[in-house]
Amino acid sequence: MSGSLFVRLGGTEGITKIASDLVDIHLANPSISPRYANSDVSALKNGAATFFIAGTGGPNVYKGKDMVATHKGMNISGDEFLAVLDDALEALEKNEVGQREKEEVLFVLYSMKPEIVRI
């Protein structure tokens, strides 16, 4: 399949499903779920979806903070960051995303590490 990563992930509908599953997986992951204890799950899912849509070549519908502003002061550990990547892979696999696309998504997520870990 060719086209932008946005298109290859199923556009807005496909990415919204992946993001929703990702948040659900985060909430069930004991190593990171405490971070979400007082969160608005609907807002989390919307933020994840719109960030992902914009970041994969779709329309720029994201209205949230940048990664540094979002994670500043959270002191996220390297282990927590890797747990998030593992959860992302699980969500991608659940949605039967192709290997090439999984690699691209994980590469992009990993490239954000300096904007997320220990800031």
Automatic annotation (TrEMBL):
<dbReference type="InterPro" id="IPR012292">
    <property type="entry name" value="Globin/Proto"/>
</dbReference>
<dbReference type="GO" id="GO:0015671">
    <property type="term" value="P:oxygen transport"/>
</dbReference>
<dbReference type="InterPro" id="IPR001486">
    <property type="entry name" value="Hemoglobin_trunc"/>
</dbReference>
<feature type="binding site" description="distal binding residue">
    <location>
        <position position="71"/>
    </location>
    <ligand>
        <name>heme</name>
    </ligand>
</feature>
<keyword id="KW-0813">Transport</keyword>
<keyword id="KW-0349">Heme</keyword>
<dbReference type="InterPro" id="IPR009050">
    <property type="entry name" value="Globin-like_sf"/>
</dbReference>
<dbReference type="GO" id="GO:0019825">
    <property type="term" value="F:oxygen binding"/>
</dbReference>
<keyword id="KW-0408">Iron</keyword>
<dbReference type="Pfam" id="PF01152">
    <property type="entry name" value="Bac_globin"/>
</dbReference>
<dbReference type="InterPro" id="IPR019795">
    <property type="entry name" value="Globin_bac-like_CS"/>
</dbReference>
<keyword id="KW-0479">Metal-binding</keyword>
<protein>
    <submittedName>
        <fullName>Hemoglobin</fullName>
    </submittedName>
</protein>
<dbReference type="GO" id="GO:0046872">
    <property type="term" value="F:metal ion binding"/>
</dbReference>
<dbReference type="GO" id="GO:0020037">
    <property type="term" value="F:heme binding"/>
</dbReference>
